[in-house]
Amino acid sequence: MAVSLPTNPAYADSIRDKQAWYLRSINALQAGSITTGAGVTVAVIDTGTYPHPDLRNNLLKGDDEASASAGDGQTDHEGHGTRMAALIAGHGRGGSGIRGLAPSAKILPIRVAEKAETRNSEVVARGVDFAIEHGATVINISMGGGPDFDLDDAVGRAIDHNIVVVASVGNAPRDFLINYPAANDGVVAVAATGRDGKHASVSVKDAKVQLCAPGVDIISASPKDGYSLGTGTSDSTAIVSGAAALVRAKFPDLSAKDVINRLTSTADDIGAPGRDTECGFGRLNVFKALTADVPPLQGAATSATPGATTSTVVAPAATPSSAPAAAEPKSASSSMPLVLGGLAGLVVAGGLVAVLVIRRRRSF
């Protein structure tokens, strides 16, 4: 569901105020004085990314796997992918417009569907391979569905190439099981918190959840130079991807597993003590992730180069706050954005996950 909002420049001036609550919730307001994500490329596998004025300077030429003809990924009719990209690496316009968590990071847009809910897992798998081949060090997948051999293999290849893969767990009540690829080992499975800082009812619960981040009433950029408000684990996933980009920029020699460990071990435990099914290790704390003294995981190669193949098997630290080697992401976060300039439905796919052995051509 989408509701129009103003698109005039005066409204853009108020965007930062609308971002403040969730940035404060994850202790991210001071992050810009530490790093802005320069040198990191984040692949956004989604509906494409529109070259919005708040984002276009960070937008690379990507890929269009959803069309028969070649494309650069910079087409987005639905707006979902644009929202995610801006939350990660929006640079805004001076003091106005959307500023993502990593405003100096680059976005590699990979269009895999016309609409998020119609994505095919085999197409998403091709998008993951494109991200691997083109130097992404973080992959954001704000969607999901059932298990699929091709996608599982592609995600595994990304992890073997030392890439941080982040995916959304899915949205209740449409989803009642965690989606794939969030459920895959090694993926950061992200759930959502609300304005109260607690687990949001829209977010699926599962033992594989790794982190929570804000996912209710999240403002972001939309096609046609507009803005939108969204609710769902799509948004929280993009926020975590932005944080991952900051950690990669601040600690360029860390392996992907150690990046994940830094994010999870510094999270704020907001539920029952220890890991739980709502927020996993807790709510993202960006400042702590960038500044805390976090020992490397046993056996993790801290000098691993992102994009280089690594088969290191990591033994997680004994403390419950250590990032597990198996961070399973869940996609299919249904966003309900207020798209500036028009009323348009934006519901990310990821319907009911049937636990089946057959995983061919499962739609997202």
Automatic annotation (TrEMBL):
Peptidase S8/S53 domain residues: 37-282
Keywords assigned by UniProt, alphabetized: Hydrolase, Membrane, Protease, Serine protease, Transmembrane, Transmembrane helix
Gene3D superfamilies for this protein: Peptidase S8/S53 domain
Transmembrane stretches, start-end: 338-358
GO molecular function: serine-type endopeptidase activity
Catalytic residues, chain numbering: D46 (charge relay system), H80 (charge relay system), S234 (charge relay system)
PROSITE patterns, per the entry: SUBTILASE (PS51892)
Keyword Hydrolase appears in the UniProt entry: yes
PANTHER family linked: CEREVISIN-RELATED (PTHR43806:SF11), PEPTIDASE S8 (PTHR43806)
Protein name per the record: Type VII secretion-associated serine protease
Organism, as annotated: Paractinoplanes toevensis
